[in-house]
Structure formats: C-alpha cells, structure tokens
# Entry
Amino acid sequence: MSEENQKQVRKFYKKKRYIIPSGLILFFVAIGIWAQKEINTLIDECNAGSIESCKELEDTYPSSYDDKVKRSKITNPYFTDKFKKLDEIQDSAEIEQAKEKAKNERKTDEANTNKNTQVNENKSTLNNVVRSKWVYFDYEDKASGKTAYQAYVESENKINLSFPYSGFQNGRLSVRNHPRFGKEIFFQIDKGQILSTDGYSYDNKYFLVRFDDGDVKKWNYGEAADQSTEIIFIQDKKAFLEKLTNSKKVYLTVNLYQDGQYTFIFNSTGLKEEFR
# Structure
C-alpha cells in the first residue's frame, strides 16, 4: 500500500472514531427527549382521570415524581397517600441532614476552642470555659414557608431496651421555636413506647424530672398529633424552661413499655438566649 493510501486509511479511521461517539450521544439524547414526552403525556392523562396512565407512570417512570417539584405537577388523587409518605420521608431526611450538619459544626467549633483556648487550672473557676452540649439547626416548615429553629441536647447515658426495641440509644431533649406552633419543648427516643409513669392514662400523663439536686417532681406531658410513641411534648413550658435554663443537670425519667422506668441525664448548661 502506497504512503498516500495509508494516509487516507488513517484519516478515515480517525474520522470514524469521532463519528461513532457523536452518534451514540445523539441516540441517547433522542431517547431522553422521547421519554420525557412520554412522561408528560402520561401525566396529562393521569391528571385527566386515567388510572391506567397513573399506574403506568408509577411502574415505568418512578423518577417522574422523585422530588416535590415534580410531584406538584401530578394532581390525580391516586397518588395522594403515596406522595404524602414521600413528602414526610423527604422532610425527615432534610431535618436529619440539618441536625448532622449542626452537630459537625459544633464538633469543629469545639476542636477550634480546644486548640486556641488555654485554661489555667490555678485560676478561679469563674475563668473556666463553659462548653455547651446543645446542638442548633434550622429547617423550613413547608406548610408556612417559614423557618423553624431547634436546639437539642443528647443524654449523657444510653439505654438498651428489650426486643423489639433493643440496641443502645440516647434520649434527646429539644427546644423548638416553630412558626406555626410557637415554642415547644419535647423529649424523644429513637425506638420504644413512652407511657405515663402512673401507667396508662387517657388525659393526665406524667414523667418524672429533677433539676440539679432538687426534689423529683411529676410533670405533665402531651402526645404527638400523629400518635408517635417515641416522643412526648412537655406541658407548662414556661416553668420547665425556666428551671432548665437555671440548672446544670436535668434527670428526666420516663416509663417505657415492658421495660419500666429509665432515667436520662442531660447537661443543660449554655442554652442560647433566643431559645429561653
């Protein structure tokens, strides 16, 4: 083969290397455009009342409603319960992400404080650095479009309940400024069923609490609106918050289904002023 022919062959294959990938890209773009048109058609038919189109959308194109913006375009009641659950999962995930971010930021702040601050043990204890255990974060209340602000502290001790709630877990004590519900104080665990310390009661439900070295007291609580058994909302919030902010330790005792009473110990020092 002459040198000229060899150059032409090399030029041909060089062009071919570019032609084939470009063709594949155009092919996938065309498939994407077709699929989006198909999805839009199914959404229109679903919104018009076609259950068959709703089911096809659900079975074939679940990515068509994988976020709230996409879900807002689908109005057929067929998806109402499914979308409600997906919204709750997404909201919960966003709150957990905000909590984790706040916790990491607090750890970074503590590391910087430990690095840059020296405490002279020979000085008065008034000069000691007080490190708060409270974690702060905020999130959007979807219903109002406004921001909710929350502070929480984890218990210093862990508990381990019997099956099916086994596994070590902390308790969490939270103070929240909510745009619709106002100020709320609540205690929660990850798994288990919180009962009144007096046993089952429909109206008057109690837990036990002690602030620092004070006397133990019975304190009223209310249940969550969704009947969750892992969380209780503390009543007489103003009095509780005053005692909380003026104490260093809080001992909170709850009655847990089939496991009896457990006491959670909290370091309550240093709650920010805006939560008081």
Summary: Residues 3-47 form the longest helix (45 residues). The chain is about 40% helix and 25% strand.
